[in-house]
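Minutes, project huddle
Topic: does the predicted pose make sense with flavin-adenine dinucleotide bound?
PN asked that the exact inputs be recorded in the minutes so nobody has to dig through chat later. Recorded below.
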Amino acid sequence: MAASFLSSPFSHPLRRFTLHHLSNKPVSSLFLCSAAKMNGHVYRVPALDEEEMASVAGKTFERYALPSSAKRNGKGTAILWFRNDLRVLDNDALYRAWSSSDTLLPVYCLDPRLFQTTHYFAFPKTGALRGAFLMECLADLRKNLMRRGLNLLIRSGKPEDILPSLAKDFGAHTVLAHKETCSEELQVERLVDQGLKGVGNGTKLEFIWGSTMYHKDDLPFDVLDLPDVYTQFRKSVEAKCRIRSSTRIPISLGPTPSVDNWGDVPTLSQLGTELQEVTRGMRFVGGESAGVGRVFEYFWKKDLLKVYKETRNGMLGPDYSTKFSPWLAFGCISPRFIYEEVQRYESERVANNSTYWVLFELIWRDYFRFLSIKCGNSLFHLGGPRNVQGEWSQDKKLFESWRDGKTGYPIIDANMKELSTTGFMSNRGRQIVCSFLVRDMGLDWRMGAEWFETCLLDYDPCSNYGNWTYGAGVGNDPREDRYFSIPKQAQNYDPEGEYVAFWVQQLRRLPKEKRHWPGRLMYMDTVVPLKHGHGGGGGNAQTSKSGGFRGNHSGRRSRHNGP
Ligand SMILES: Cc1cc2nc3c(=O)[nH]c(=O)nc-3n(C[C@H](O)[C@H](O)[C@H](O)COP(=O)(O)OP(=O)(O)OC[C@H]3O[C@@H](n4cnc5c(N)ncnc54)[C@H](O)[C@@H]3O)c2cc1C
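Predicted holo structure (tokens), as shared on screen:
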């Protein structure tokens, strides 16, 4: 669909920031430690070199391997269709494909639709950084499969064209894949099914559930009756469900059929996207080996799991939170693997609130995944799951100031620059920029959600649109309607202005106390005219005596124990 930018007046004027809302909550000194390490450079995540990463991955594969005596009873050829499950460890579809065949063909289809545009606003569907991350995931997956006697067939094209033709050529009895839940992915599943039926050689299509920590079949209610309140969901699964053990994978998975050309991992230019180097901030390394490496680094090497709950609201540096999300989104690591590593850490080192809190967050991830089944396409609609009616602007200039980090509000601009430079933004940052776009700028929340879809390395439709609907106040739970006061967030989470100065160069020469309030035109070429003529620039906020900033949102529940 073509971009449509309407220029209607704002229904939610940008509100004036006042110091009135600041509080003096101290941040953990740990944020500052990891901030200091960034030092203005590119920080590789994980920071392990290739040799250490390979050694960690090798040891982890051994720990989670099935004994070599494991039996394989199947016959014939099975095709394993890799989707967002680019891993060997704890891969149920891989295990099932191996055990139900005597020859296994792993396939990845580079679907051109991934490189088209987003639904409403025609942004690139996959930004260059996520494209590059995906290519690294494929190269690593191929390497790890080859170690086990397989390979990865990489084909460019639509799965519904490629898989039926391969099924025919190789006489496969089954195509196995992990199940997805959102409409675009479900449509591909339907087309593949039709394609296989069209070939007429009886190839079955089998889907396996494998993206969540709690298995869908173990939920204590039908997924369509999922509670609308996260806490109810969490308490119910914690009380009534068990997390299944991760699936052990044999050390040897061969043989694989002979194939003339396995296909190269394409370059970005072959996909019509230009390479983008990370010039500042975190540079995430794609693939299962790097994902397993990051778990090792965060839990075992740096021993950070025990302080996660104190540091998780940070914004600067690699170590305030786990940074597992890009690997989780591509399925390079599974949440059950993380769960087992948390358990191991709890028995070998310490069990405390922090070790539990990583699981608490992973339950949010599960929740949004299950919610996508319950809510269907309403997750992507303006009114969201509750069909909330409202007036929203699609003002292009205003949106671009947000997207390009040129609003004049340092904490917004720094976060948006981090996103476009690295493909990552902290959870704290995401909540702040989301609230700003929706409530201060009054823009259609889908513009923000689609821009996140373009940029995020960890983009996942369920978590992205689930969180955006909550942030916009149109989510399934009306109580999850929160307003984030920009001055208060700045004071609480970046009191020294280190984060904003890291991303907005012009702020570095300012004294710390001025970094969030630099004054108009301090670092921007232009100032977007806003409805009440605030003209951007936190400088106005310093002098404002108007305490009405929170406007009609003042009675909202503040974020406590939220995602
Ligand atoms: C507007 C908005 C959009 C978001 N879009 C995405 C997205 O597309 N993909 C995505 O994975 N996360 C998304 N999140 C959730 C969250 O911000 C990221 O998962 C988190 O910042 C990733 O960093 P981390 O791995 O260090 O998280 P940690 O704090 O270390 O948490 C551990 C894991 O828990 C899960 N998790 C934590 N918070 C959430 C949450 N609120 N919702 C769902 N899962 C969570 C993630 O898998 C994360 O890797 C979004 C949040 C907001 C507010």
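Observations noted during the meeting:
- The longest helix spans residues 353-375.
- The chain is about 40% helix and 5% strand.
No decisions taken; revisit at the next huddle.
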